[in-house]
Structure formats: C-alpha cells, structure tokens
Amino acid sequence: MRLILFFISFNVFSQISLPTFQAIHNNQESGIILLDNLILHLDASNPSSLNQNDLSTWSDLSTSNNDVVLVTGFTRNSYTLNSSPSFSSNNGGSITFNDNAAYRRSTFTNFSGNAFTVSMWIKTSQTSGRLFSVARSPSSYGKQLILWLTSSKIGIYGANNSTNTVNDNSWKFITVVRNSGTYKYYINNSLDVTRTGQDSKTFNYNDLVIGWDYRNNNSGFEGNLGAVYFYSSTLSQSEIEDNFNATKSRYGL
User: Fold this and answer.
1) Cross-strand partners of 69
2) What percent of the chain has pLDDT over 90?
3) 3-class DSSP state for residue 245?
4) How far apart are CA 41 and CA 61, in angstroms?
C-alpha cells in the first residue's frame, strides 16, 4: 500500500478568486435609494409607511419624521375637502387620489427652502392637478412651492413646464431638481429640460400638502401615487438614475 501525502500551500488559497456578494449591494433593482439628505420618504408599498387598511396617516421613513395626515372637513369658497383616497395593491401598493383627497403636515421639518430635489412615482391620465405644495394656504402663499400637472406636463409654478407629457396612465418617475432659480425636470431616468424660474426666492416651510392645493378649488390630483422622495439637496443625474433603477421593477419598467 502506498501512502501519498499532499501538501497544499496557504499561498495557493490566497490566489484563488472566491465568489463575492458585493454585487448584491450594487444591484440596480435593490430597492435601496439614496439616503443622504433625504428628509421625506413616503412609500405606499411599505407597511412601515402606510397601513393599507387605515389611510389616515402616511408615515415618513426618513429620520425627519415628516409624517403627513389626511385632510378632512376643510372648506373654502363653499368647497369642502373630504379626503377619501383608496388603496391599490397593484405594483406593490399605491394610493389612489381623487379631486378631494390630500395629505398635510403643518411644518416641513428640515426643509431649507432653496436647493432641493423632489421625486414621485405617479400614474395618471389627468391633464391638470396639484401634486406637491409647500407654503400654499389661504393665509400664506408669498413664498410658495407648487409642483403640478398642467397641460399634461409636470411643472413648478413660476418655472414653466416639462417638454414631454406624463399623463398616459402608465407609471412615471418624475423629478424636479432646484438650485436657486434653475430647475431641472426629469422623467424616469432622463433629463427632460432645464428651466430658469422667475426668481431664486427661498420657499417657506409651512403647510406641506400632497395631492391638492389649499387655495384653488377642484385642483386635486387624480391618479395613483406610489412613493415620494424629497431631498434637501440637489441630486445629480446619475443619482436620479440610481433611484429610478432601484425602484423601477416594482412599476413594471
């Protein structure tokens, strides 16, 4: 009988390429979005953000605690806002808004009012309606921020609109980046247009409202809203693309 001894050097192991799990962290459809300077993160698919059986509160997943609550019983010019959205389980979960549904927070915590990025996953066939507003109430509108749908496009009040429409009733990832008086509009992962606003004013931080406009009757958003991401900084195009890629699979893109 022969006894054969094998001697294996540890140096050999050190040269072997072993599998790595690093790719998991770089997965473009990981669902992990950029967290730096994120001050508002609402996600209808996450039960920590929204209870599909109780839509009264939409909780902020960021560290800023900017939870928003349904508005009920608000009356202006004989028009009463009685919020009655519904939950859709399609695409992981979204809130279906109608003309008289809105969420509100009295103070937008950590909002500086100048440089910011706001992104939203929306699906609508509406031509005109309000998506996101700050400092737009019956008593305060001098330094207002309004993100709206108008002529089937997205826009910021005072900064014109996108060139492409977004109301084909398919999911769109819309983003506005604002740096002083310059506004960049993105649709999905592409830059649509760069606009110059009427001024470079600093917006106030009161009355954050989603899906409606306190000063105009019949201005509510009609459609589905899946998620809202608001940053107190300007995101680059590559960062916007990363956020789009991280979440797009849920919306069938």
Assistant:
1) 57, 104
2) 62
3) helix
4) 5
**Check whether domain 32-251 has CATH 2.60.120.200, yes or no:** yes
Residue 178 has pLDDT above 80, yes or no: yes
Task: Note the pTM of the prediction, 2 decimals.
Answer: 0.85
User: Left if phi > 0, otherwise alpha if psi is -120 to 50, otherwise beta: which for 65?
Assistant: left
Alpha helices in the chain (DSSP H): 10-14, 22-25, 237-247
Give the closest residue to 70 by CA, choosing from 35, 100, 114: 100
Q: Determine contact, residues 182/195, Cβ cutoff 8 Å.
A: yes
Give the pLDDT confidence score for residue 30 in this predicted structure.
Answer: 61
Contact predicate 214/134, CB 8 Å: no
Closest CA to 92 of 29, 161, 24: 29
> From residue 115, how far is each of 73, 132, 155, 207 by CA, in Å?
34, 16, 16, 18
Q: Work out the pLDDT band at 121, boundaries 50, 70, 90.
A: very high
Do 62 and 40 form a contact (C-beta atoms < 8 A)?
A: yes
- Amino acid sitting at position 234: T
Q: Which residue has the tokens 């108008």?
A: 150
- Placement of tokens 């000063």 in the chain: 215
